[in-house]
């Protein structure tokens, strides 16, 4: 007799035949791709199969303890996904130790001897931990740069108001003390130096730094022009005009004598 085997993969059937003494029989084998790229035989989904109860896996992560409910036929890669919700660590940042050995994502819990209330150890991947630490330092520097830029921006706002006041006075033909203009220019230059010393500015902080630098430059250029215009204004000379009065007429006083 000829025996026909039917292999089913991704919905397609492949037939093979072999000579056998038994009666003709058709077998269907289904395959599935598991996390990690492992090809395994699909587990039966027949209704007469007893439903598998989830395992309660105890996970130790530093000083924290978690109890994760997971299917015993799940992989360690699937366990890591569940641990992400608890620890915040991405699967690629996790290393799981079970029975004294680090487990790969494609390994199955039941095949590695994981039973109900079994204990596994979770540690953060050293390289990921170093990257996280470096990112935290970078973020701290960026935040510090934002604070420094905001402080300089506040000072520049005040100086802009003073520049506007001087511009208004000179525009109205009122001469301003030259020392007032030169002092204001010096203060603006000091703010520009503060901005240049902020070296950790990145992204939005860098844009804000450049914007404030442009404001300082514009104010200095405006004051330079006002300084020239101020020299062309002639000072107003105020002369005092005194009011004259006619002299009082001479008077004679008669005195009365008493005995």
TrEMBL record:
Q: What is this protein called?
A: Ubiquitin-like domain-containing protein
Going by the UniProt record, its keywords in alphabetical order are: Chaperone, Coiled coil
Say which species the protein is native to. Answer: Anisodus acutangulus
Gene Ontology biological process terms from the UniProt entry: protein stabilization
User: Per the record, what is one GO cellular component?
Assistant: cytoplasm
Which ranges of the sequence are coiled-coil?
142-169
Q: Which GO terms describe its molecular function?
A: adenyl-nucleotide exchange factor activity; protein-folding chaperone binding
Read off the InterPro entries from this record. Answer: BAG_chaperone_regulator (IPR039773), BAG_dom_sf (IPR036533), BAG_domain (IPR003103), Ubiquitin-like_dom (IPR000626), Ubiquitin-like_domsf (IPR029071)
Task: Answer whether the UniProt record assigns the keyword Coiled coil to this protein.
Answer: yes
Give start and end of each Ubiquitin-like domain. 53-123
């Amino acid at each position: 007799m000829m025996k026909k085997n039917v292999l089913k993969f991704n919905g397609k059937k492949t037939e093979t035949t072999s000579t056998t003494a038994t009666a003709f029989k058709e077998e269907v084998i289904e395959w599935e791709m598991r996390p990690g790229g492992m090809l395994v035989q699909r587990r039966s989904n027949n209704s007469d199969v007893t439903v598998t109860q989830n395992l309660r896996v105890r996970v130790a992560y530093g000083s924290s303890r978690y109890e994760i409910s997971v299917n015993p036929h799940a992989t360690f890669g699937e366990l890591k996904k569940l641990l992400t919700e608890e620890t915040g660590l991405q699967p690629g940042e996790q290393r799981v130790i079970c029975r004294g050995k680090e487990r790969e994502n494609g390994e199955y819990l039941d095949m590695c001897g994981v039973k109900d209330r079994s204990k596994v150890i979770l540690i953060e991947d050293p390289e990921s931990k170093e990257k996280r630490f470096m990112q935290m330092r970078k973020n701290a520097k960026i935040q510090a740069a934002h604070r420094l830029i905001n402080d300089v921006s506040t000072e520049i706002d005040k100086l802009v108001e003073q520049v506007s006041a001087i511009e208004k006075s000179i525009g109205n033909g009122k001469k301003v003390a030259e020392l007032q203009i030169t002092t204001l220019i010096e203060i603006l230059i000091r703010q520009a130096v503060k901005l240049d010393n902020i070296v950790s500015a990145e992204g939005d902080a860098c844009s804000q730094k450049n914007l404030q630098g442009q404001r300082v430059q514009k104010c200095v250029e405006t004051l330079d022009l006002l300084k020239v215009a101020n020299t062309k204004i002639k000072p107003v000379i105020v002369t005092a005009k005194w009011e004259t009065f006619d002299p009082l007429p001479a008077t004679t006083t008669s005195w009365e004598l008493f005995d």
